[in-house]
Each structure stands twice: as structure tokens, then as C-alpha cells.
Amino acid sequence: MHLTVLDHPLVDHKLTLLRDKNTPSSEFRELVKELVTLEAYEATRNLSTTEKTVATPVGVAHGKKLNESPRPMVVPILRAGLGMLDGMMALLPMAEVGFLGLKRNEATLDIITYAQRLPEDLTGRECFLLDPMLATGGSLATAVHYLHDRGASKITAIDILAAKPGLERLEKEVRPEIDFSVVVCGVDDELNEHGYIIPGLGDAGDRLYGVV
Ligand code: PRP
Ligand code: URA
Predict the structure, then answer these.
(1) CB within 10 Å: which end of the chain, N or C, has fewer?
(2) Which parts of the sequence bind uracil (predicted)?
């Protein structure tokens, strides 16, 4: 697993606002969108390109364009990951979008897969998983193996906040043959007894969309 923790004053500023319990939902949603766009810059660093020559108004420029076949696959993990989709698609408009609905059983922290809408065959596809929170790592481990089992060749998770125990679990649990990276804005040391990241930012899904 390759881990990137963004180190940038814009990221620090926005993450601090996001953590603040007094930040209202409308602002929380905007901050999530802005943070994922900054993360996407890093997460897409290795996308493949082809040389392309274009005529400028005054000459010829030898540039590059992103390869569109196979199209990158963006997969928000419902529900909280949905809050990251618009920000990601703003940078990668040619991507396809698949959906994975995962829910933690709040008592056991086991993962329930309640929705899936993705191509059966992801052979050779680069996939970007979106989920603001990486707590115990159970949801992300489930999602990574799900995509790899369908043939995904490279998987990059974009999370806003991760907990150290969750990252350690992923190091152990994600099968070593999987080309897997994680990009986060920050890493907190602890989880509480309910599997919440401490100090974290609370329940990301609830802060985005309301309490269920
Ligand atoms: C949250 C979060 C992650 C998961 C992280 O989702 O969005 O998917 O918990 O926890 P883990 O690393 O311990 O698996 P939740 O299950 O609360 O569902 P929601 O997005 O519908 O709120
Ligand atoms: N899910 C969240 O939304 N927040 C946490 O701290 C842990 C899991």
C-alpha cells in the first residue's frame, strides 16, 4: 500500500474548518468538494497520457492528453462518499462512475454491502474509491477486494481523514498483489470504542446529509 498524506496550508485550513462542530452542513459539503479536488490532483498523478500536438494562435505546441480508453472508474462509497463525487468529476470529467453501498453495523463494526452498481468486468481499469472517513479500515478493505476481484488493475482510495489503526489494518489485510494507494488530508492516532476517529470530525454521512 502506498500512502500519501497531503501537506499543504490550503488543505490544513479547510480540514480544520471541516472538523469544527460548528461548521454547518452547507459549508461542510463545500469543504468536502474543495478538499477532494485538491486530493484528486495528487491521486491522478500517474494517469497515462498520449502526446498531442495542437495549433496555438501563434504556433505549434507539443502537449499531452489523458488516455480515455479504458476510462478511469470513480466509485463513491455510499453514503458519505457521494459528497466527494462532484469535486472528483470536475477534474476527471471523462471518468465512468460506479456505486458501492457499504454500511458499518454500528455494534459489531462489520461491513454490510447493501448496494452495488458497477460493471461486472473491470479488467485493466484504474479505479478511484471515494470515502471521507477511513476509521477501522473495514469498509475500504471490503471495497478494494471487491474491485480487485472484478479485475481492477490499480486502485486509489481518496479519503479525507484516516485513523492510524485503520491504515495498519489495511497494510495487513489488503492482498499484497493489489496495486493499492491511499491519499488523505490528515491522519489521526485513535479510534474510540465505537470505531469513531478521535478527534476526527464526527459522522461524515450525518454531517453531509443529516442523521439517519
Ligand atoms: C462511514 C464512512 C466509511 C466508514 C468508515 O460510513 O463513510 O464508509 O464509516 O468506517 P470503517 O473504516 O470503520 O469501515 P457509514 O458506515 O457510517 O455509512 P454512511 O456513509 O451511510 O454514513
Ligand atoms: N465514520 C464516520 O463518519 N466517522 C468516523 O469517525 C468513523 C466512521
Answers:
(1) C
(2) 197, 202-204
Task: Tell me, using a 6 A CB cutoff, whether residue 84 lines ligand 1.
Answer: no
In this prediction the pTM is 0.96
**Rounded to an integer, what distance in angstroms lies between the CA atom of residue 101 and that of residue 54?**
42
Q: How many residues does the chain have?
A: 212
pLDDT above 70 covers a percentage of the chain that reads 100
Cα(13) to ligand 1 centroid in Å equals: 24
Q: Give CA angle at 205 (127, 185), nearest 5°.
A: 55
d(CA 4, CA 189): 16
Peptide bond into 70 cis (omega under 30): yes
Domains of the chain by start residue, with CATH: 2-209 (3.40.50.2020)
Cell (9 digits) for 98: 460506479
Q: Is the pLDDT of residue 109 over 90?
A: no
The pLDDT value given to residue 211: 79
Q: What is the pLDDT of residues 113-139, one digit of tens each?
A: 999 999 999 999 999 999 999 999 999
Higher pLDDT, 211 or 56: 56
Residue 158 near residue 40, CB atoms below 8 Å: yes
- Residue ranges at the known binding site for 5-phospho-alpha-D-ribose 1-diphosphate: 79, 104, 131-139, 203
- CB of 159 sitting under 6 A from ligand 1: no
Report the chain's C-alpha Rg in angstroms: 18
How many whole angstroms separate alpha carbon 86 and alpha carbon 64?
24
